[in-house]
Amino acid sequence: MNKNVKKVASLTLAISLLSSPLAGQAIAKMPAKHKSKVNLRIMETTDIHTNLLNFDYYKNAASENVGLAKTATLVKTAREDLKYSQNSVLVDNGDLIQGTPLGTYKAKIAPLKDGEVHPAIAAMNLMDYDMATLGNHEFNYGLDFLAETYDDANFPFVNANVYVDDHDNNPKNDVNKYTPYKIVKKFVRDEYGRPKLLKIGYIGFVPPQINEWDKSHLDGKVITKNIIESAEKFIPQMKKKGADIIIAQAHSGFNGSETNTEDVIYALSKVKGINALTFSHTHKIFPAADEKSLDSLFKDAKGNVLPGVENAKGTINGVPAVQAGYGGGSLGLIDLTLQQDRGRWKVVSSQSSVRSAAAVKPDEKVVKTVKNAHEATIKYVNTPIGSTTDDIHSFFALVQDDPSVQVVTNAQKWYVEKYISLNKPEYKDLPILSVGAPFKAGRNGVGEFTEIQKGPLTIRSAGDLYLYDNTLKALKVKGSVVKEWLEMSAGKFKTIDPNKTETQELLDAGFPVYNFDVIDGVNYQVDVTKAPKYDKNGAVINADSNRIVNLSYDGKAVDPNQDFIVVTNNYRAGGGGNFPGVKGSEYVVDSADENRQILMDYITEMKEITPTADNNWSIAPISGNANVTFLSSPNGQKYTSETGKIQYTNKTDANGFGIYSIDLK
Question: What residue stretches are annotated with the Calcineurin-like phosphoesterase domain (predicted)?
């Protein structure tokens, strides 16, 4: 049945119930001063990243921790709860259409045709979503592809902070690109089974940085405004237009900052009028199973939970909130109790929770719906492109120079060398440095590491090495910027006390792995006994600290005024991660070619690669007998003999990560 038809049927049923004799009898039994209560369940999916099935395209095997088809089973169960059987809504918080080879396949290889339904949208139509919002990755393939994807949805989406670029520099006449908010009438039942009308307001937000990260697609077409300012503009309008409750769907993360414009949830929770908050972007879980399991993003430097965060209830500054992690591995729930008083509804109690999909079976209807796209993707990613003489893995990429990063930086440098030779010979004498990061180093769980066996390489292998649909950029920067770039990256390490004999963790889990940039072409060491100069948001926290030591190029100390060409991607060049001195640098190469495609072309031309790290960076040796550990997959233990300094302790943490010791003497 068409969703609009269902809504009309629901409305007709509600009206008939209101006028029925049974309804009249129920009302007669109500106490004279009874205030009606309604239970409302908000279900959230987010950061699906085209993980539609419980399958890992990089490992070519099942993966029980992802899959919208599995989340669909959780949704069914959550709807069957008698308390919420007619009193639930399902929302998606963005980053839906990019992230796996399936997303790439439908956007680049066999792109959507007019009238063709994207498999992600087809699955969501089956699941009967009520509302969606856009994530930053929705813009990776351009505005036309975004429009073609969502025009087949049987559900609306909202976004309040993306505007049409009218080029007149007058913010007062700017027009929203998308519907900023919607107020949807929904009939629910109160505690006595009587139908009640709720006007639910939905409003959505995306990080303003999309204009920088996807500049090639968005420049001159749209502008993006501050999330908090947009909320303060539209939420009073929603109240004035009769919204009984307001659900803010923010594709934004939590980091405790009041000023960060990418991860604004802490500040957004303080905006008056928001009754529930679904958030996303950082791939974290909120609320956690217990306070001890709460991610470090929700804690201060001393490990204390930030003021206003109530993990047990799942509230932030008193506002019910939920974040459902990544890839369809969980379903977020906000259960509200609403009370009507003098014609107005207010939240009198709430409980947020997250349900794991790991142990449930996928919904067979969803599986069947996406089967053709899934099988076509598998065929695509198994296309051969070359071979490798040795295994490639990322188990130790955060603690030592690593072949999985080196292969990527070699390919990027190869591309830029050819580009400059053919197109910009005036830059031919400048040294070229190449930046890479270990994208698959456990960010989304213990299963997310690269491990490619020696032998044939396929398109799947390239996707395993380069996870994102980034495009290549090369910047001209000074040696001083290279130094501070590396200082920012060094924030991944905690400060180690060389005189302390108790166990010390080396890696800061709150620092994103995709911001741990390795710069090949220079040599350097990281002194982890010194405090980090920058925090994870790029703010200076220890101005006099310098962790990067022995920084050299071609055997000589790097001159702060020396010019370098640094190869990176559109995310970093556009300011992603707030790396000091990077944004605003001169572009030498502003390419539309994807870094991953460049990697594939490199492997194809080389035919056979030898994945060897050149050891251009390392952690500086420290004195004393410090007992230093780090987390990685237990599967990495078979590679410890390669280093001589890393040992597996045969222990794991609560999330299944293996605990390794590393000798820094």
Answer: 40-284
Distance between alpha carbon 584 and the CA centroid of its chain, in Å?
25
Between CA 43 and CA 38 the distance in angstroms is 16
* Cis, peptide link before residue 21, omega less than 30° from 0: no
Q: Judging by beta carbons within 10 Å of its beta carbon (0-12, 13-18, 19+), is residue 430 exposed, middle or buried? A: middle
Dist. CA 33–CA 165, nearest whole Å: 53
> Using the 8-state DSSP alphabet, how is residue 108 labeled?
I
Report the chain's terminal Cα–Cα distance, integer Å: 68
What are the helix (H) ranges across 206-360? Answer: 210-213, 215-218, 227-240, 265-268
CA 524 – CA 618 distance, rounded (Å): 7
Per-residue CA distances from 228 to 137, 201, 521, 579 (Å): 20, 17, 41, 23
Contacts of range 23-27, beta carbons closer than 8 Å, 24 or more positions apart: 23/194, 23/195, 26/192, 26/193, 26/194, 27/194
CB 564: neighbour CB atoms within 10 A?
20
A 10 A CB-CB count for 79 gives 17
**How many helices (H) does the chain have, and how many strands (E)?**
16, 36
CA torsion sign for 464, 467, 472, 474 is: negative
pTM of the model: 0.86
The neighbouring-strand residues paired with 131 are: 91
